[in-house]
Amino acid sequence: MSIAHDSVVPVRSQTRRTIVKGAAWSVPVLAVGAPAAHAGISQCTVTGSVTLGPAGRVRLDAVCRDLSQSGAFAVPRIRTNYGLVFLPSYVEICNCTSDPGWYRFRETDSLDNFQIEVNGQHNDQNGPGAGFRDPFKLAPVGQAGGCQRFSLTYRTSDPRPYSDVATGTPPSGSRDAVQVNLVLQRHPSTAAVAPGANDPGWVLNTSLPFSGYAWRTTRPEPDFNSCSAGQSDARTSSAAPSADSLGD
C-alpha cells in the first residue's frame, strides 16, 4: 500500500490521531499502543509522526491573570479542579528516519486567556521563542529513545461557561470552543548540543490541528484579579472528572 504526501493515516483505534508527512511510503501505520521508548519500523513513515492521546475529560485549573503567561513550573492555582476540558492528555513524537535528529514543537490555541502546559510548563506563544519548546534529540527509528511522550495539562485565567453535565461535553452555549495547532520542526544536526533557536536548519516536519472544549464545573467564580490560592468553591458532584472519552 502506498500513501502520498500529507496524508492522514487511519489507525486501528479511533481514539488517537496520527499525522505523517513526507515521501510516499509502504510500511505499516503507527502502532498506537507501542512503548514511548521505542520507535519501531511499524510505528513510522520515513520522516516523522505526531500522535495525540485520546480526547477525554481532563481537569482544568484556574490561575490569576497576573500569572497567566508565566512559564514557571507548578504555577500557583487560585482554584484546582475549576472545570474540565475535552482534549488529549498527552502527545507523543517519534523520529521516523534512520538518522538521529533534533526536534522541537509549539502549540498555539485560539482561546483567549487559556493556557496549555507541556510537562507542567506553559510557553507563551507571543514570547521571544515564538512558543517553541526546548529542542530534544531522538534516536533513529527502531532504537530505544526514538519516541518521546509529553503530558498535556490545561489552565484558564478567565471565566468559562458553567455546566454540570456528568459525561461527554456540554451543549453549545455552556462551553468554550478551542482550536489548537501543533507544529513540529526537525533539524538535521546529529551533534550532542542542540541547535540554536534561530538556526536556519530548523524545517517544518508536521503540522497537526485539533479542537476541543473548556467549561467550568464549580461555583462561584474565583477572583481572577487576585492571586490568592485556594479560593473556595461549591463543586457539584455530578461534574466530577470522569474517564470517559471519545471512542472508548
UniProtKB/TrEMBL annotation:
Bias (Polar residues) ranges: 225-240
Top-level lineage group: Bacteria
Region listing for Disordered, in residue ranges: 219-248
Name this polypeptide is given: Uncharacterized protein
